[in-house]
């Protein structure tokens, strides 16, 4: 695509050689738009919960091979102009031209191209790759470039805050500006003195955790990019900060509050009307640990917490105990994550200009404070040939032109603050990455958690970063190295040699990874030679971002470095509606493994019916692992995710946005092991998510009472229970209910003196197994009630029982239920138990909860009464929310198909359940993300 050119300035003041660009994907004399078939489509996006139209634009123009989902995302998210006006963009051509035109014009203006012909070829190649979904820039580029808005191209920012009130207030302001522009920010609070230190006035300092409250409230108020998505932010604290334990416990304590409020009937779902009363929910928290601390954990030694003002140790703590508290908090609520400080800074290209202290919200961008990074990601499946071979040479050519475009963008980009603008222009940090790794591995017959899969992923990652730095060295010869290079030349070259050495250590297993690794070796060798002469244009080149919205734009099956979510997925249809299909990667993988067409068809039919491959007809057991996914019958082990991160980390300038999913049954000790292994394997940052930890119940309930009961054995009184039968005619009531989309009826019959004596539950189709089980269950409960077992006993046993279906109900008194039984016995308690008995069980009506707010949170208590009055709406509502009876996203489809809860929030734009994308979530319905890519 671009020739290797003379990249050093010639002696005697001769002009530098510029870039000459060759065609790879395009044909001279034929515009890329003329090679595809275009069609007009109507985009109408509705909220599946109530059927209202969220967005509508008719007659938009897209290539015929773009999916309906990608069309909807791009039209609603990236087309500029007022909705319904003639000025609004209505074709993918216009969108691509707007962006590419700006890049080419800036490249010409700043002297990148040898001639106008080279600029034209660059324009056509860039257009072709965007048109054919080969890669995508990050969302801010599509939002802003070529419009009248500030030309903000970066998705990731790192801020700085010092131990002064002016700096802290400036932090709030800078975050607000970044969120408004559609991006996310992270920072390290460790410079702020702890609550155990004194102010210059003699008073005690507030500590960083107290200032987090203000920033959290600000982030919760501002929606990024107008209504594009919620604010995304990261807060980091060093492990030697005296307030580290308070920081670790911050979100875990709030999660316990969420559980209590949820159990009392408040709407504590993400975006719920009552969640705003809870603090610290708008940021990801991470602890920055040092090698010194991790060695102390390993040896069971002491570790010193240091004063922020003097650097002296003011407290000694047991390192293993502190590490255990970190793991326990993450086990409870998935926060805080962990960042490995010495590993991060060992790969730092610019240590003379400052340490790396923080990351962006998704933990993939790590560099200097007050800096930014613009991202772009390649669709790896676009480089897999029909012969099943990864096209490494074409991949390298694509990386060349993408890195060139990304560097050009810094020449015209606008930034939210002057310090960020100054640092970014001096260091020119880039973040090229990829998506669809999980699909590529499956399609080539590799298990995600396998040596062969990791070898191929490592080789591709090495090739990408090696080519990016080779192009960066060539650009340094054309337009000069980054301004901060001279001061950091030795360190930058040292890191380049570390990358190249890691490439030499890749162990290959077959012709696929060996060929990729061979070309990567060539790229690294060339990069080192040219870089030694020219320096490098960019202080960093690559990261692995979550690729949420842009992954949907490129029609990727998997995001970032992630495996497949599941083998069945949700697909929108052109005429409206949707259907479930087996991932198209599956038949391709089966053919790569040598199966015949008839066998492939039978296996795909089995997967469509069962959602997994276990016992699929004709599928050999040794091939099961190829189809392991993030969720489902055969889910990848947590350490499998960690091992994949470790395989690709040595080839990333930055880090990796990924969350290691753990089963609900995982223990705190297993979380400790994951965090410890991440350090041992050389990963830069790591976060875990244990299934259902965000809505888990308080731990160890009732153990203390059991112990005291054993201490004083009671006298055993034997008696024969007597059954008190109900009269032939008895008062009764019937309640219809909906729990998580499942509809049913509860019939409760009472004795004439008002005591409950029987229940019948109708759930499921008549004659079904579920209906039969519920009939038997109802009879057993009814007989128990008639033999004198108190209703309170049943309620205490069955409330908070957790299984599917679960979720929102249509009952204003019980707004969320963890299962059908949880709902049924809460409803029975409300209808048949006196207030005092229900109060002991924590079960109240909506009116009672409303009254409790004024009583429990009276002035003088520890809770801000005014905040609760203004944010918690406990007023009962008689509206019945629409409940999904079918899947509306791949996550919901997986739940319906496998009966397994996928912990993901509902999209606040359209109400569809989101799916994981790295350490963030993405909505397949409208493209909204919880992150920053």
Automatic annotation (TrEMBL):
The catalysed reaction is: a 2'-deoxyribonucleoside 5'-diphosphate + [thioredoxin]-disulfide + H2O = a ribonucleoside 5'-diphosphate + [thioredoxin]-dithiol
Q: What is its EC number?
A: 1.17.4.1
Which residues does the UniProt record annotate as the domain TSCPD? 727-830
Gene3D superfamilies assigned to the protein according to its UniProt record, in alphabetical order: 3.20.70.20
- Matching Pfam families, A to Z? Ribonuc_red_2_N, Ribonuc_red_lgC, TSCPD
Q: Which CDD domains does the record match to this protein?
A: RNR_II_dimer
Set out the biological process GO terms recorded for this chain's protein: DNA biosynthetic process
Q: Which UniProt keywords apply?
A: Cobalamin, Cobalt, Disulfide bond, DNA synthesis, Nucleotide-binding, Oxidoreductase
Alphabetized SUPFAM superfamilies for the sequence:
PFL-like glycyl radical enzymes
Domain Ribonucleotide reductase class II vitamin B12-dependent N-terminal as annotated: residue spans: 43-133
- Identify the InterPro entries for this entry: RdRp_reductase_class-2, RNR_2_N, RNR_lg_C, RNR_NrdJ/NrdZ, TSCPD_dom
Cofactor(s) required for function per UniProt: adenosylcob(III)alamin
Domain (Ribonucleotide reductase large subunit C-terminal): residue spans on this chain: 154-689
- GO molecular function terms attached to this record: cobalamin binding; cobalt ion binding; nucleotide binding; ribonucleoside-diphosphate reductase activity, thioredoxin disulfide as acceptor
Describe its function. Catalyzes the reduction of ribonucleotides to deoxyribonucleotides. May function to provide a pool of deoxyribonucleotide precursors for DNA repair during oxygen limitation and/or for immediate growth after restoration of oxygen.
- What's this protein's family per the entry? Belongs to the ribonucleoside diphosphate reductase class-2 family.
Instruction: Output this protein's name.
Output: Vitamin B12-dependent ribonucleotide reductase
Which organism does this sequence originate in? Actinokineospora spheciospongiae
């Amino acid at each position: 695509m671009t020739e290797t050119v003379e990249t050093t300035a010639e002696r005697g003041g001769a002009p530098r050689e510029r870039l000459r660009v060759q065609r790879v994907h395009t044909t001279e004399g034929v515009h890329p738009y003329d090679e595809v078939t275009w069609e007009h489509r109507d985009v109408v996006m509705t909220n599946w919960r109530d059927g209202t139209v969220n967005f509508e634009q008719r007659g938009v123009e897209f290539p015929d091979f773009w999916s309906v989902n990608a069309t909807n995302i791009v039209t609603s998210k990236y087309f500029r102009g007022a909705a319904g006006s003639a000025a609004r963009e209505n074709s993918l051509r216009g969108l691509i031209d707007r962006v590419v035109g700006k890049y080419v014009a800036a490249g010409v203006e700043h002297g990148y191209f040898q001639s106008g012909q080279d600029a034209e070829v660059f324009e056509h190649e860039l257009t072709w790759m965007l048109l054919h979904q080969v890669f995508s820039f990050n969302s801010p580029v599509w939002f802003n470039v070529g419009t009248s808005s500030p030309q903000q191209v970066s998705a990731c920012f790192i801020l700085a805050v010092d131990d002064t009130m002016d700096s802290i207030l400036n932090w709030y302001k800078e975050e607000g500006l970044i969120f408004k522009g559609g991006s996310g920010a992270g920072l390290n609070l460790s410079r702020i003195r702890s609550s155990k230190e004194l102010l210059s006035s003699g008073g005690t300092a507030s500590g960083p955790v107290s200032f987090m409250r203000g920033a959290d409230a600000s982030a919760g108020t501002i929606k990024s990019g107008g209504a594009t998505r919620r604010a995304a932010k990261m807060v980091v604290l060093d492990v030697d900060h005296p307030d580290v334990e308070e920081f670790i416990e911050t979100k875990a304590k709030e999660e316990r509050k969420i559980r209590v409020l949820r159990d009392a009937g408040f709407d504590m779902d993400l975006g719920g009307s009552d969640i705003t009363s809870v603090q610290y929910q708008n940021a990801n928290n991470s602890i920055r640990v040092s090698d010194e601390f991790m060695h102390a954990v390993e040896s069971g030694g002491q570790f010193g917490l240091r004063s922020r003002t003097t650097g002296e140790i003011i407290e000694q703590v047991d390192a293993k105990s502190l590490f255990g508290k970190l793991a326990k908090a993450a086990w409870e609520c998935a926060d805080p994550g962990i960042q490995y400080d010495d590993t991060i800074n060992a790969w730092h290209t610019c240590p003379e200009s400052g340490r790396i202290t923080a990351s962006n919200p998704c933990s993939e961008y790590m560099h200097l404070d007050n800096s930014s990074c613009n991202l772009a990601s390649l669709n790896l499946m676009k480089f897999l040939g029909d012969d099943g071979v990864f096209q490494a040479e074409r991949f390298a050519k694509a990386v060349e032109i993408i890195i060139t475009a990304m560097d050009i963008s810094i020449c015209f980009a606008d930034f939210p603050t002057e310090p960020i603008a100054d640092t970014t222009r001096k260091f020119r940090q880039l973040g090229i990455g990829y998506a669809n790794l999980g699909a590529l591995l499956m399609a080539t017959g590799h298990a995600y958690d396998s040596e062969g899969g990791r070898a191929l992923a490592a080789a591709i990652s090495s090739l990408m970063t090696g080519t990016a730095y080779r192009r960066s060295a060539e650009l340094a010869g054309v337009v000069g190295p980054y301004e901060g290079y001279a001061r950091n030349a030795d360190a930058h070259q040292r890191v380049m040699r570390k990358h190249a050495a890691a490439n030499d250590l890749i162990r290959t297993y077959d012709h696929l990874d060996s060929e990729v690794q061979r070309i990567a070796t060539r790229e690294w060798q060339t990069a080192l030679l040219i870089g030694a002469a020219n320096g490098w244009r960019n202080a960093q080149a690559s990261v692995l971002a979550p690729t949420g919205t842009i992954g949907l734009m490129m029609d990727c099956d998997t995001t970032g470095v992630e495996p497949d979510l599941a083998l069945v997925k949700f697909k929108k249809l052109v005429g409206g509606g949707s259907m479930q299909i087996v991932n198209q990667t599956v038949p391709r993988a089966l053919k790569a493994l040598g199966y015949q067409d008839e066998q492939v068809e039978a296996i795909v039919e089995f997967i469509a019916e069962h959602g997994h491959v276990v016992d699929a007809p004709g599928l050999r057991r040794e091939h099961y692992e190829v189809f392991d996914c993030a969720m489902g019958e055969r889910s990848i082990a947590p350490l499998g995710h960690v091992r994949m991160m470790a395989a690709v980390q040595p080839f990333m300038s930055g880090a990796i946005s990924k969350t290691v999913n753990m089963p609900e049954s995982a223990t705190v000790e297993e979380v400790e092991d994951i965090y410890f292994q991440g350090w041992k394997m050389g990963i830069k940052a790591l976060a875990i998510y244990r299934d259902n930890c965000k809505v888990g119940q308080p731990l160890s309930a009732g153990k203390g009472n059991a112990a005291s009961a054993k201490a004083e054995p009671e006298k055993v009184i034997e008696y024969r229970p007597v059954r008190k039968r109900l009269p032939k005619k008895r008062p009764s009531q019937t309640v219809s209910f909906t729990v998580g989309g499942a509809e049913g009826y509860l019939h409760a019959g009472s004795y004439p003196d008002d005591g409950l004596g029987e229940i019948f539950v109708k759930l499921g189709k008549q004659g079904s197994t579920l209906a039969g089980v519920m009939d038997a269950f109802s009879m057993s409960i009814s007989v128990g009630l008639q033999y004198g077992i108190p209703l309170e006993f049943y309620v205490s046993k069955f409330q908070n029982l957790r299984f599917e279906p679960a979720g929102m109900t249509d009952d204003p008194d019980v707004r969320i239920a963890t299962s059908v039984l949880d709902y049924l016995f809460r409803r029975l308690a409300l209808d048949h138990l006196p207030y005092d008995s229900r109060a002991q069980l924590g079960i109240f009506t909506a009116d009672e909860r409303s009254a409790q707010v004024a009583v429990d949170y009276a002035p003088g208590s520890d809770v801000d009464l005014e905040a609760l009055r203004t944010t918690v709406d406990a007023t009962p509502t008689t509206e019945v929310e629409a409940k999904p009876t079918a899947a509306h996203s791949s996550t919901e489809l997986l739940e319906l198909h496998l009966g397994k809860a996928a912990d993901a929030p509902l999209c606040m734009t359209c109400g569809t359940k989101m799916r994981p994308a790295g350490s963030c979530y993405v909505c397949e319905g409208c493209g909204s993300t919880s992150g920053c890519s």
